[in-house]
Amino acid sequence: MDVSNSMIGLWYFHLPNFILAIVMYTLLGRAMFGLIVDQDSKNFIWRFFCQLTDPFLKVFALVTPKATAPVVLWLFGFVWLFWIRVALLYFFLLFGLLPKAG
User: Fold this and answer.
1) Neighbours of 88 (CB within 10 A)
2) Residue 52: helix, strand or coil by DSSP?
3) Of 25, 12, 6, 34, which is closest to residue 88 (Cα–Cα)?
4) Which contacts (CB < 8 Å, 24+ apart) does range 24-29 have?
């Protein structure tokens, strides 16, 4: 087994990508769940979504107009995270840090 091409050998790419994917899809879930749950709900799933995504939303709020509705900010955050993941992939491809096929 070639460790350099395994998941463990490429941890420097997979770990940040996985964390960004978790936050990205949690933001999408928050946007969908937010349509049926109040902002101040005591639902434990809603609170988990808020705790996980609020630090990222504070950063995205800096580059998003203040008049934006919260659900739109969550969706913008999803798009921002998608492009951050694409940039991460491009960075590693550019520097040849991903495995070659075959």
Assistant:
1) 14
2) helix
3) 12
4) 24/78, 24/81, 24/82, 24/85, 26/52, 26/53, 27/53, 27/56, 27/57, 27/74, 27/75, 27/77, 27/78, 27/81, 28/74, 28/75, 28/78
Question: Looking at the 3D structure of the chain, how many domains does it have?
Answer: 1
For the segment 63-90, what is each residue's pLDDT rounded down to a tens digit? Answer: 988 899 999 999 999 999 999 999 999 9
Give the closest residue to 24 by CA, choosing from 49, 47, 61. Answer: 49
Q: Is 102 among the domain residues?
A: no
Length of the chain (residues): 102
28: domain range?
Answer: 3-94
In this prediction, the residues of the chain whose per-residue pLDDT falls under 50 are none
- Distance CA(74)–CA(53), nearest Å, equals 9
Is residue 100, in this structure, part of any structural domain at all?
A: no
